[in-house]
Amino acid sequence: MSSLDQISSSIDAAVSNFAKNTPALERRLMELLDATIKELEVRNGSILSNVNNLKKINDIKRKFGKIILNNDYLKQVKSFTNAFQRVSDLQIGYLSQFNEKFTPLKTASVLQEMAIDNTIDSLTESGLNEAVSKPIMDMLKSSVVGGGSYSELVESLRKSILSSEGKPSILDKHIATVTKDA
Length: 182
What we know:
Largest sheet: 2 strands, antiparallel
Structural class: mainly alpha
Number of helices: 8
Distance between the termini: 24 Å
Helix content: over 70%
Strand content: under 5%
Radius of gyration: 21 Å
């Protein structure tokens, strides 16, 4: 027999298992950015607004997806979406306790499929580009085009990319929102 506690525990476990590798992703992203921004041309603490620097930050976008969308991450996404079926089975078991003739509506499976597709989109390319890559790339472009302070850029990137106590990273916020809303 299913209970609300089992359903809740199954959901919590799926969210927790997915989010546990976020710190490793954050570190790899920061390593990529550290290596790249160290190569930027700087004068008197300000980033030079030139073609070479723009090319360097443009290269980050390609590398960005490779770091996050690796095989391990994609397996995590698949495992997380597999939890949808486990939760659905628990919900059906729970509701069947109250009505022996209970059968889920046909629309429930279609809605579940839609939810899985939306979750996959949000946790992979299109969702990550919009929620994570774009804001970071905007920060980099703004600093290069505007000749911003190198040290301020480094600090802003660290605050955005690395979670700290009580302050989730941009990636952590996105993953938490998507997995909890799913």
